[in-house]
What we know:
By secondary structure, this protein is α/β, with parallel strands linked by helices. It is built from 34 helices and 17 strands.
Amino acid sequence: MTTHTDLTFQLKKHFGFDKFKGNQEAIIKNVLKGKDTFVLMPTGGGKSLCYQLPSLLLEGTAIVISPLIALMKNQVDAMRNFSEEDSVAHYLNSSLTRAEEDVVKDDLLAGKTKLLYVAPESLTKDENIQLLHQIKISFYAVDEAHCISEWGHDFRPEYRNIRPIINEIGTAPIIALTATATPKVQSDIQKNLSMLDATVFKSSFNRPNLYYEVKQKDSEVEKEIIKHIKANTGKSGIIYCLSRKKVEELAANLQVNGISALPYHAGMDAAQRTENQDKFLMEEVDIIVATIAFGMGIDKPDVRFVIHYDIPKSLEGYYQETGRGGRDGGEGKCIAFYSYKDLEKLRKFMQGKPIAEQEIGNQLLTETQAYAESSVCRRKLLLHYFGEKYTQENCGSCDNCMKPKKFIEGQELLVLILETIDLVKEKFKTEHIVDILLGNDTADIITYQHDELDNFGTVMEEDGKLLPAIIRQAILAEYITKDIETYGVLKLTKKGKNYLKSPKPFPIVKDNEFDEEEDAVNTGGQGGTSAADDVLFSILKSLRKKLSKKLGRPPFVLFQDPSLEAMATTYPITMEELQNIPGVGAGKAKRYGEEFLKIIKEYVKENEIIRPEDLRVRTVPKKSQLKVSIIQAIDRKVALDDIALSKGLDMDEMLDEVEAIVYSGTKININYFLDEVMDPDKVEEIFDYFSTAKTDKVNVALDELGEDDFSETEVRLVRIKFLSEVGN
Length: 728
């Protein structure tokens, strides 16, 4: 029997630590006894030690199944630092040369290697199975075990085959480890690995040092990020984006603004990716802009902020990514930018996938949306999601707790909600319950004849967002449960049934208000902004109006409002500075810029303005390689949908790119495509509309033209033609 003194001695001897953290000692003792072990421990809790120390104390080699090559390298380097021999730890994956593979095999067969990291794909290779047959395996460690579950945030199909491969190689105890798992995901992992009898060690998910905040995402988001980084100069930070393209763009924009930042995503060359990761770990660079591929197991203790440029696809993903901040117990700011349009885009990406996969994805997104929009303590929401109760009323370390709350009485509405869930036999989700109460006669409501229920339309006058907020807070209060197995069907708890018999006051807080960024996607990427200098903005608008009359073109053809607002914030006085204004570009600057620059120069001089040059957000030249290749393809008369397909874009994203090209002043000709996909009369009608329109907003155009007769895509296509021919 291994005593506390023995283990503490071994911990000090091998790793230099004086004492264990949290559940580490109990977990290690369980592994040393040869028992299956399930470890649920937040990022920064010290999961790796739970299998590293037992591997050194047990006879044989521990096989660590890990999802990322970068993670393996990081962990092997760390183990070698604690040992005198490099042979103590190895990894076996596709990045090794034949000579390097031979060294690994020789060390394994000689019994020198205590820890072998492998990717699940590498385990399936016959030569590796034959190799592992020849060595004694002390135990298997399945790291990042949430990858097994379809309900996990980083599901990998190859992870579901781990158990059959273990059976083929030779059974041994298993330790499964994850930093994030809801009760549903935990159950999935244990079933799949056939370890239902495993001892479960669950640490608290609460990270008291992390501050959580969700902000409105608008066209000023990059400026806000840059200002945050400059206010925290010298501090390490990670910025997560969902697309590789945005990672590249944002990293480039940070660099031209004097910030030491590098990109990281799966599409990069492996050597470059490793180099960028190492520079971040070695503090040669402050900021990494990355997709979610970055950070699994990266043991950097002093990441001071984690920014989500895009709202993540699941709360599990969000929790794990924010968990990379403040691992040393110090400051860790977690800021997420939220836009309903981003959420809709993510839902659109799921179309075409199997129905079950769509259901799971939508359920996970709904939870993320609830977290972003709710006014309840963010810590309470997160911990509840992971099956943990947080009893404090105010955590003092999230945006919702830091601002005064306005409570309203929700008793009457809660009773109606609970009654309705009961009336429909606890078989429907939040959206359906809300539709019944608001009196929305959707197809499902009609099909199930729920428009005939007594509760149908009983709260028609209520704000549609209030009912979901009450349901979420009723779940936190344990009056309702959400059945994950059936994708979020609502059921009454015993406490909820008792509440119906004897209602009592139920004070609730309304959700946060997030503007549904009107038409941002349809204005060359520009959303509504506000100028720093209202007087100059007004002068520039007057100049634009005067020039538009003189040239006989709508004002928006010259410069859009966000461009004028940017001018009234950064005061460009040279042609080069003007070209860096969002939505301007070289062509437009040369065509219309002189008079605007003249006005701004005079205004700056007369008012003795010190221009905020140091804070000015510079942007990289707009004509990226992608835009250049799109222009070239259009010149060759390639159909726009074919161009989109070849660039890995959907049609909306393609139109975003083409709009950005024409809004920046470049002339293109898409008549060949319009001739193919649109009726000439329709083209003429939309073109005529824009000739006299006061705004270029698509929703306004659709109201005028009639949504039944024209689609959003048709209006956007003709607007591109109009802007190119009339403005450029």
